[in-house]
Structures are given as C-alpha cells and as structure tokens.
Design a protein that fits this description.
This protein has a domain of 194 residues: Tetratricopeptide repeat domain (Serine Threonine Protein Phosphatase 5, Tetratricopeptide repeat). The protein has 16 helices and no strands. Helix 1 runs antiparallel to helix 2.
C-alpha cells in the first residue's frame, strides 16, 4: 500500500512540473498533466486512499477543462463521483455526476449524459426518492431531445413509479400521461393498456373519478383496447367505485391482472378504498336519484267523500 501511495505522489509531482511555465516554455502542458493526475488517482484508489483519489480526479478534470477536452473532463468528474460513492457520500457523488452530464451534452455526446444521469438516479434512489425521480426525468429529457423515445419512456416510467411511491399523485398522473403518449407514438399498444390501469388507480387515489373515467374513455381510441381484459377490468372498477360496491372493487383490485403489475401500482390497487366506506348506494341512487327518500303521498282531504 505504501508503494502505491509513493507512486501516486510521484505522478502528482510530474503533473505539477508539466503545469509550470518558464522562459523556454510559455504554456502549461495540460494534456500531459491530466495524464499524470489520472495515474495518481488510480494509484491512490488501489491504496484505498479514496479522498486523495477523488482530489486527483478533480485535478485531472480541471486540466482537461483548461484545454477544452470536455469529454475527458466529464469522465474525470464521474470518477470523482465514484470515489465519493465508495465513501458513502452519495449526495456529493451525484453532484459531480450531474456536472459531468452537463459537460457530455456540451461535448455533443448526449447519450453518455443521459446514461450518467440514470446511474446517478440509481445511486441516490435508496436515499432520496425525489432527487432520483428528478434525475430520471432529466435523463429522459435528454433522450427525448435526441428522438430516442424507447430509452426516454423507460426512464419516465422509473420517475412515475417513484412519484407514486411518494404519493405525489398529481405529478404521477402527469408523468403517466407522458409515458402513455410515448408508448402510443412508438405503437406499443399493450403497454398503453397497462398505463391506463395505472392512471385510473392514481386518479382514484386522488379522488378524481371524472379524470379516471376520462382516461378509459380516451383509451378506446387505442387499437385493441376496447373489449380487452384491461378495458373490461377498468369499466368494472369504475362501476364498482361509483356504486360504492366494495366487493366488486376488491374483486377487480385483487385480480391477477392488477396484482402482477409493477409493485408500486399493485400496492395502489390493494389499498384503494371506495367512497362512503363501502356502503352501496340506495337503488334509487343507482337509477340516477340523489339518494333522498321518495316523497310521501299527500293525504286527500276528500278521501271519505264530500259529506
């Protein structure tokens, strides 16, 4: 280990020499300095001196930036982030990866930027769901700008699930609509059906029956939806919810169709409560009455005759 540390310091000393100027050397040799900083970082990393490895990677990034080698600078920032990850300093690690993603975009390599943001999302997800969702949305936006919808929609799906997990149902509803629109655009219709189910569950948890019904109604235009098991299940669910029929709602929500959805949506189904505590509406209400008792017949004061 001591040998690796000494080796690292030797590389740092060489890097400093490359950066010095003199009467005969007017400009610093940033390229050579960056190479030595990278070697120092690897030596520190092998010696498990992670703090010093991070510093060396940051110095490498600075040297690359000085001569506008943005791609390599971004890579060095990512490596600095990985050192912080190994030190369990995840928020700081994510900051460096975000900085790297900006550089990748500036360099004209947006795909690499999006993949970096996806990695950052995975890193921070166990610690901060809101931050992870934001990173997935950013990554999706980069792919979307490149018209790579298949990659974009996968990342939006990750964000949707995390928003549901946080019970941010308004944001989740928007995210799911965006997902569904993208799946329609790439003609993945069966997945559109599943997104309709997720939308209905989210809207009902928001207490917005009208929005849930609208989602199903709009989905009739998707090829194959009308008459599908997904469509029938949602029609039954909405009917049961509107009629306050707890038994019907429970039967739909515990069916294999909903039980085997992504875990976050399956939990929404299981936890769905019907309004009114599951007490069915009176028969008159089901026929369109407001629920009030039928009016009593007025007594006929002449019922016994005139005399």
């Amino acid at each position: 280990m001591a040998q690796k540390i000494n080796e690292a310091h030797e590389h740092l000393a060489k890097a400093e020499k490359y950066l010095k100027t003199s009467f005969m050397k007017w400009k610093p040799d940033y390229d050579s300095a960056a190479s030595e900083y990278a070697k120092a970082a690897v030596a520190f990393k092998n010696a498990r001196q992670l703090e010093q490895a991070r510093d060396a990677y940051l110095q490498e990034a600075e040297a690359h930036t000085s001569y506008r080698s943005l791609f390599h600078a971004a890579k060095a920032f990512e490596q600095a982030g990985m050192m912080l990850k190994d030190m369990q300093r995840l928020p700081e690690a994510v900051q460096y990866i975000e900085k790297a993603s900006v550089m990748y975009v500036e360099n004209g390599t947006p795909d690499t930027a999006a993949m970096a943001l996806d990695r950052a999302g995975k890193l921070i997800e166990p610690l901060d769901l809101a931050k992870a969702a934001h990173l997935y949305q950013q990554a999706a936006g980069v792919f979307e700008n490149e018209e790579r919808l298949r990659q974009a929609v996968e990342l939006i799906g990750k964000a949707s699930r995390l928003l549901v997990r946080q019970q941010k149902f308004d944001e989740a509803a928007e995210s799911l609509q965006k997902e569904k629109n993208m799946y329609k655009e790439i003609e993945n219709y069966p997945t559109c059906f599943k997104k309709t189910i997720a939308q209905v569950l989210v809207h009902l948890h928001r207490g917005d029956y009208v929005a849930a019904e609208k989602c199903v109604r709009e989905s009739y235009s998707i090829p194959g939806f009308s008459g599908s098991e997904d469509c029938v299940a949602m029609e039954q669910l909405l009917q049961g919810y509107d009629d306050q029929d707890e038994e019907l709602v429970s039967r739909v929500c515990t069916s294999p169709l909903l039980r085997y959805m992504d875990n976050d949506y399956a939990k929404l189904a299981i936890s769905l409560k019907v309004p009114g505590g599951g007490k069915k509406k009176p028969a008159a209400a089901a026929a369109g009455d407001s629920g009030a008792e039928p009016p009593k017949e007025e007594e006929d004061e002449y019922a016994g005759g005139l005399c």
